[in-house]
Amino acid sequence: MNSSSTHPNGQGSYIDRPAIHVQENSSSVYSDNAKYNTVPWSIGLFGCCSDINICCLSCWCPCILFGRIVDIVDKGNTSSTASGAIYTVIASLLGCGCLYSYRYRAKMREQFHLKESPCGDCCVHFCCENCALAQEYRELEHRGFDMSLGWEGNMEKQSHGVQMTLAPPAFEGGMSR
Fold first, then answer.
1. What's the domain count of the chain?
2. Is 108 a member of any domain?
3. Is the pLDDT of residue 104 over 90?
4. Looking at residue 16, what is its pLDDT?
5. Could you write out the DSSP letters of every residue in 84-146?
6. In terms of residue numbers, what domain contains 54?
7. Residue 160 lies in a domain
8. What's the mean per-residue pLDDT of the chain?
9. Is 20 inside a domain boundary?
10. Tell me: the pLDDT tens digits for 107-142?
């Protein structure tokens, strides 16, 4: 059952329907309606303190958190070491690592259809850089990624998991008491 509602610009109405994925020149494009079918983050921006390890890492070594996020979001195309180093240089020289990091929040939101909240990506990273990194990291964990393994490690783990589920279960001995 489709529901009809007023278009966000106040003109006319549109019917809610799932985003349509189209391949054009090997880059993915989503219909305009995709931005209206977003899901909330699994943890709020200020929920970073609910995992003290991630909270401390985001405060004292945000380059590590950021590098791991980039590795997953870029699907292994950018190494965590390289992105963490670039982040460190920008943060050290300009005092504003958010100039680099907010772009990956936007990319992550697009990949997982997450709401842009509580405000724009650049603003979130500029005002609450450490909380934003912790939120992004925790979101990826919530989606099943083992952040310490990186993209390649997660893909390898996933492929081994599939092979293991296809193998028959091990059966030791007969019935015994």
1. 1
2. yes
3. yes
4. 37
5. HHHHHHHHHHHS-THHHHHHHHHHHHHHHTB---SS-HHHHHHHHHHHHHHHHHHHHHHTT--
6. 40-145
7. no
8. 77
9. no
10. 999 999 999 988 888 899 999 999 999 999 999 999
